Structure formats: structure tokens, C-alpha cells
Amino acid sequence: MRSAEELRALVEDALTELALHEDLAGLDEALRYSVEGGGKRIRPVLCVAVGEALGGEAEQLLPAACAVELVHSFSLVHDDLPALDDDAVRRGRASTWSHYGEAVGILAGDALLAEAFRLAASYPTTAVVRELADATLGMIGGQYLDVTASATDLASLNRLKTGRLFEAAVRCAVVACGAEIQAPWRAFAQELGALFQLVDDLLDGDGTVLAYGADETRRRADEAAERAAAALSELEVDSTVLRGLVESLATRTA
Amino acid sequence: MRSAEELRALVEDALTELALHEDLAGLDEALRYSVEGGGKRIRPVLCVAVGEALGGEAEQLLPAACAVELVHSFSLVHDDLPALDDDAVRRGRASTWSHYGEAVGILAGDALLAEAFRLAASYPTTAVVRELADATLGMIGGQYLDVTASATDLASLNRLKTGRLFEAAVRCAVVACGAEIQAPWRAFAQELGALFQLVDDLLDGDGTVLAYGADETRRRADEAAERAAAALSELEVDSTVLRGLVESLATRTA
């Protein structure tokens, strides 16, 4: 079983070497630009780690892991567009649309999403595609609630916008290994998504921090981390690396 | 075997009754708006007709047919955006972005694409998803060549922008029926895509008409129709309805 850092290196290599569709012509440059740029690769590492915990080979999990990361990239590329969050900068450099123009930004996001499904369809089962489509639609629904300011509560919004793709990272790995998504896996995935968002809010001083204060947010994050660890205890798998991921998500400072 | 008109009614009903993802919340209205509005449903009808020619039941083909139509809708919704073709009107009414705003236009297109893959993943095989992803990426690549004016020739551009999705309509039906995509099916699909685009150019007076004149465009369209019919003759299927579709594509006036 490999460490999280080894898994991260594997994921990074797989993303760099991704064989994009030949018909994309020059658009592939904008896709690579969007996927590069120093993301933490938390979701794909989580995906591969879940697969390894289930006894799968990391290499077999990489298409699913990359698919989840491409959906994440797609969402960032489109969310940054002027009509949505209007962010010209992402991770310290020009966002895709501000580097390549808005038309290419839209098309690059579209292509990232289609590439994600192409990767997800490389398994013998359609289950990976179904999990990914489910998560993507939830995420888009969350973004819709956000831009139209029509969410009923912050937790539900976060569960859609952030949680769904964390859940997909776990669920895609489980089904890619041919296993059933047991209740503890579902719980683990949900708690991890909540944990990530709560710590994000702590680091950015917004969301839950604005609504309930930093102490309450920290308390909720710690509870989510505890529940994630408890869910792992219910699973008969080697969860060493996954426990480390929970710990690093709970204590991250960036 | 049902007539093209009966198939069109089936497709229309299936699109109307499409169960969109529950997490889309209020965004579903923009998706329905985008899919409604009087399209000719040529691609999904073609998909179902190919399936029936192969001995499949129309009902079994409907998810694939609807998936192809959703990808078509996605492409229209995004192509109409201000950063791309900037069309405020589509089929005589406000385009999706001009009706719901640009942010919702982007998100609705994204959701249509994800819904398409969700439908395509409802088959026991991943082949439908793979065909659809392939076609979608080719189509996006074509749109990129178009907006950046970097296509080397008109025929290759059309083959990507229009042809790929016609090919997907045929190919998805074949693989959904568990059949192999034999060479005549590939040829039939390609010729049909070319035929559609050439007649489009004749009706709009652009593209091939501008480059080579109306007579030459008509000649090419008739040749494509002949080759499509010839391809059908090589297949041991009941191609009555498909021959009718070729004929109606060749002689359409709208």
C-alpha cells in the first residue's frame, strides 16, 4: 500500500500523460493549462486510496481518479467565467478564460467534462459513469442555487457544490473495484466532503464561519473528521492511508 | 416496424417525460426550455430507426436517442452564448441564455451534457457512453476550429461540427443493440452527416454554397444521399425507414 504522497505523484503523472481526444485539435492546450497549475489533487488521491484500501491496484483506479479531477477542473473553468464568479485569477495565474478568451474557456470546460466521461467509460461497468454523472449534476445544481441565491441552507448547498464530488471520488473507486457501496463508505464520503468545506471556510473566513463563527466551524470540522474515522472503522479494509487523509484534511493550512 | 413519424412522436414523448436529476433544483426548467421548441429530432429518430432496423425495440433505444438529442441541445445552448455565436434567438424564440441569463445558460448546457451521459450509462455496456463521448469531443473540437477560424478545410470542419453527432446517432444505436459497427454503418452515418450539412448550406446559402456554388452543393448532397443508400444495401437489415430518412434529408426544405 502506497503513501498519500506516492499516490499524489502517481495521479500527477497520470494527469500529465492523459491522452486527450485527437479531434480536440488546438483546444487540448487549454485543457492541459486548466488541469495543471498546482491543485492539491485531494479528490483523485482519495479515489486511488479508497481503491487500494479495497485491495485494488492504484493503476486500475487512475482513470476514475483522473475523471473525478477533470470534472473538478471543468467546474473551476466554468465557475471562473465572467457570467459566473468572474475570476480572472486562479491559483496565482490567469484563469482559463482570462488566458485564452471566454469562448475557449467555455469550450475547454465542456471538453474537460466530456473527457471525464470518456475516462469513466473505460471500465467494464457503467457504474463509474453513473456515479460521476450523478455527482456532476448535483454539483451543477448546487452552483445554480448559489448563483441564483436560492439555497435554503448553507449545509445543503455545500453538500451539493463540494460534497457531491468528494462522494464521487469514494463511490467511483468502490464501484471501479466491483464492490458494493456499503453504508460506511457513503458516510465516510459525506463526512469527508463536509470536512473539506468546513476547513475551507475556516481558511477563507467565509461560509460557516460567517454564519456561526470560527469556533463552531472548527467544532463541526472536528466532528466530521471523527465521524469519517468512525465510518472507516466499520469497514473491513486497510484504512491506514485513508485515516491519514482525514487527518491531513482536518489540519490543512492551505 | 414503425414509420419515421411514429418514431418522432415516441422521441418527443420521451424527451417531454425525461426524468431530470432531482438535484438540479430549479435549473430543470431551463433544461426543458432548451430541449423543447420545435427541433426536428432528426438525430434521435435516426438513432431509434437504426435500432429498429437491427431488430431492436424502439423503447430500448430511447435512452440513447434522448442522450444524442441532449448533446445536440447542449451544443446549441453553449454555441448561442454571447462569447460564441451571440445568438439571442433560436427557432423563433429567446435562446436559453437570453431567456434565463448567461450564468444559467452556461449551467443549463453543462447539465444537459451530464444528463446525456447519465442516460447513455443506463445500458449494460459502456459502449454507448464511449461513442457519445467520442462524438461530443469531436463536435467541441470542431466548434473550437470554427471560433478560432483555424480549420484547414470546410469538409473536415463540417465532419466534426455536424457529422460526429450524426455518426453518434447511428453508432450508439448499433452498440446499444449489442451489434458490431460494421463498415457500411460507418459509411451510412458519415454520408448522412455530410448530406445534412450540405442541404443546410443550400437552405442557408452559406458554407459549401459560398465556396463552390449551389449547383455543386446540390450535386454533392445527391451523391452523399446515393452513397448513404448504397451503404444500406450492404447491410442485411430492413432499411425501409432509413431509406425514407435519407430521402427526406435530401429533399427537406427547412
Could you please describe the fold and organization of this structure?
The structure is a homodimer of 254-residue chains. By secondary structure, chain A is an all-alpha fold. Chain A has a domain at 4-180: Orthogonal Bundle (Farnesyl Diphosphate Synthase), CATH 1.10.600. In chain A, 72% of the residues lie in helices and 2% in strands. Chain A has 12 helices and 2 strands, in the order ααααββαααααααα. The first copy, chain A, has helices at residues 4-16, 28-35, 42-53, 58-79, 96-100, 102-120, 127-147, 154-176, 183-204, 208-212, 214-233, 240-251, and strands at residues 89-90, 93-94. In chain A, strands 1-2 form a two-stranded antiparallel sheet. In chain A, helix 3 (42-53) packs antiparallel against helix 4 (58-79). Chain A is globular, with a radius of gyration of 17 Å. The model of chain A has no long low-confidence stretch (mean pLDDT 96).
Q: Per DSSP, what share of the residues of chain A sits in E-state strands of 2 or more residues?
A: under 5%
CATH architecture label of the domain at 4-180 in chain A: Orthogonal Bundle
Helix proportion range of chain A: over 70%
Give the helix/strand class of chain A: mainly alpha
Instruction: Give the helix tally of chain A.
Output: 12
Distance between the termini of chain A: 26 Å
**Could you name the CATH homologous superfamily of the domain at 4-180 in chain A?**
Farnesyl Diphosphate Synthase
**Most extensive interface between two protein chains, with residue counts:** A-B, 52 and 52 residues
Q: What gross morphology of chain A would you assign?
A: globular
The biggest beta sheet of chain A reads: 2 strands, antiparallel
Mean pLDDT across every amino acid position of chain A: 96
Order of helices and strands of chain A: HHHHEEHHHHHHHH
Q: What is the chains' assembly state?
A: homodimer
Say what the CATH topology of the domain at 4-180 in chain A is: Farnesyl Diphosphate Synthase
